[in-house]
Design a protein that fits this description.
alpha/beta; Arc Repressor Mutant, subunit A; D-Maltodextrin-Binding Protein, domain 2; 8-stranded mixed β-sheet; 10 helices
Amino acid sequence: MTLPRRFLPSISSLRALEALDRLGSATAAATELSQTQSAVSRQLKTLEDQLGVALIVRQGRSIHLTPEAADYADKIRGALQQIAQASVKLTVNPVGGSLSLAILPTFGMRWLVPRLAEFARLHPEVTINLSTRLKPFNFVSEPFDAAIHFGKADWLGTEALRLRTERVVAVATPEFLAKHGPVSEARDVLRLPLLHIETRPNAWPAWFEAQGVSGAKVNGTIYDQFSTITQAALHGLGVALLPDYLAEQDLATGRLTSVWGDRTLISGAYYLVWPIQNGRDPALRKFRDWLVGQAEDEDLLPR
């Protein structure tokens, strides 16, 4: 269905509206858009005339959007982001396409990146761009086609491919254990300094439950990334719960040792997630299909 021309305003007018909403003044909007303030005002007036709706409230020499126009600008922001994102992808790689992927820093560097050479060999026509994000975000306002996410497959408006269920090991340096040990049962770990990761607030209680220690009250220091908590453990600051893929090298070399128990399954897994509307993107489909062969769980594809 072809929409009437009046419902398809110019990009320049929409950019002026979005910038005014985000920045709060016509002066700031004009500076960002490399235009004069009068040019921004003319574009907004043209948009008002075209839509037949009042968008601007003028108070003295300042202007701001009506509540309805601000809501409209919020929706337009996502559309402009999608247009820019599609244009960048076409420009960067007009033949094979590109994929902008948000990754968790440690999992991305230790699990995904070492495998990407194979994907590049199989699909040299696809460009993969990586950026780090620690927490879920709004795909509408961020320039990403997909993301590596830890938790559950419950990211609103997305589909997901499970990559790896997380199993953790409680580790510390041999020197730390010699000083603070012995550990003869799981409950003994409670008296040791425990290192916590911010993104897994329930990891230690879940670990103790799995070892048969119910209702454990855990304390300790908190770290925001696995890279820092690993270094803290290596420097003898306490016991860390590390994913097995992250701890295996230090365990093999003896820099770290298991404090108690074996690999323990806890709640949560690593997923590739993507907005539902991106599901047919050729670059994403090639990457997703390749990841199926890299994943370590069964029943992977979304239902």
